[in-house]
Amino acid sequence: MNDTNYAQLAKEAIRHATGIEPSASPLLTSLGYHLTIHSQPRHERLMRLGFEATVAKLPFSIRYPITNLMKKIRNPKSTVPIASMKDLFGYNLVRDLIKNDIPKFFYEGSKGVIVLTHDVDNLVGWNMLPEALKDLRSRHLPATFNFLTRADYPLDYTVLDRLATAGHEIGLHGSTHDIALAFRSEASILQTLRRGRTALQERPSGFRSPAFSVSHALFKALDGAGFVYDSSIQVASTFYHSTSFPFPYRLPGFDLIELPLTFNDDMVVRDAPLSDQGSLRVFSELLDDTLAVGGVFVANIHPHNLVGRMGLYESILELVQEKKSAGTRVTTAGQIVDIFGSRLAQ
């Protein structure tokens, strides 16, 4: 894509998110560039492929400490790898454009949107689902749960049916937790995705890649497998290429909507192990800044990280419930994508 294409992509994304046509600005080119697909650097792709070839089949009790060590090597100072929204040029571009008039363009009058997602990576996480579901049910909060189909936990279709009946969404997270999935051949990825949809009884319309690996091959395969949206690209990560744009948008060149991830609990639980209070502060600041521009705040909670930290989860849900009472919409990823998709079709 050239600069003109990048600027046009950014204009369309802002218009679809806010209903406002932005005027010409050099920042549009930068935003458009950040909205396109950028895979992990070559050295990280090779590292992930090597990890999968040597470590991935080990039991979770061994693999988990190894991945913790890898995170420590990547982040030796244990800094929080999330940028402040106010430091993101895409966010500031929208904030300056709307001024104090928070858009309610496609949220049916709501003051922004909160989407709670849960990536179920392992048996420990699967076993934490009853507690998480009890807390969600007591607060009348819907959520999205992304499952692996060949992990160390057996898919219990009775549980999946209960989730769907309770208003939750079932998404796909892959077959195994293959952190190099996006770096395999398109044919191999497509086979994994199709088998995953079959295993989940064709329910998933959305996908999140394990460890957020992305590539053009992955998105071509998602298109081919019939997925409607992806939520693997982040908004404010300092580790990965990020959009700096807390709104859904159509991925250029694909029939897919990207729902960027705003908060990933690993970044405050494992990358920079904060206290519950510190973790909640990071969550709250990102949430408030996102809602200040009428954005879509997508949070990811790994149920295995809830062991010994249910108090943090309950505090997060209490904050979300407060925002809901104040006029923020809380919904599943699939529902907000449907609303956004209908807006695109107009």
Task: Explain what this protein looks like in three dimensions.
This protein is α/β, with parallel strands linked by helices and 346 residues long. The protein has a single domain (42-345), classed as TIM Barrel (Alpha-Beta Barrel). The chain is 47% helix and 11% strand. It has 13 helices and 10 strands. It has helices spanning 3-18, 26-34, 42-54, 60-74, 89-98, 123-139, 157-165, 186-199, 216-224, 266-271, 276-292, 310-325, 333-345; strands at 113-120, 144-148, 169-174, 206-207, 229-230, 249-250, 257-258, 263-264, 296-301, 329-331. The strands form 2 sheets. Strands 1, 2, 3, 8, 9 and 10 form a 6-stranded parallel beta sheet that branches. The chain has a 4-stranded mixed beta sheet with strand order 4-5-7-6. Strand 2, helix 7 (157-165) and strand 3 (169-174) form a beta-alpha-beta unit. Helix 8 (186-199) packs across helix 9. The longest helix is centred in the middle third of the chain and has 17 residues, at 123-139. Residues 109-227 form the NodB homology domain. It holds the Pfam family Polysacc_deac_1. This is NodB homology domain-containing protein. GO terms for molecular function: hydrolase activity, acting on carbon-nitrogen (but not peptide) bonds.
Count of discrete alpha- or pi-helical segments spanning 4 or more residues: 13
Question: Quick one: CATH superfamily?
Answer: Glycoside hydrolase/deacetylase
Mean pLDDT: 92
| Tertiary shape | globular
> How big is the Rg?
19 Å
Question: What is the secondary structure topology, with strand pairs?
Answer:
Elements: H1 3-18, H2 26-34, H3 42-54, H4 60-74, H5 89-98, E1 113-120, H6 123-139, E2 144-148, H7 157-165, E3 169-174, H8 186-199, E4 206-207, H9 216-224, E5 229-230, E6 249-250, E7 257-258, E8 263-264, H10 266-271, H11 276-292, E9 296-301, H12 310-325, E10 329-331, H13 333-345
Parallel strand pairs: 1-2, 1-9, 1-10, 2-3, 4-5, 5-7, 8-9
Antiparallel strand pairs: 6-7
Helix pairs in contact: 1-2, 6-12, 8-9, 11-12
Protein name: NodB homology domain-containing protein
Pfam families: Polysacc_deac_1
GO molecular function: hydrolase activity, acting on carbon-nitrogen (but not peptide) bonds
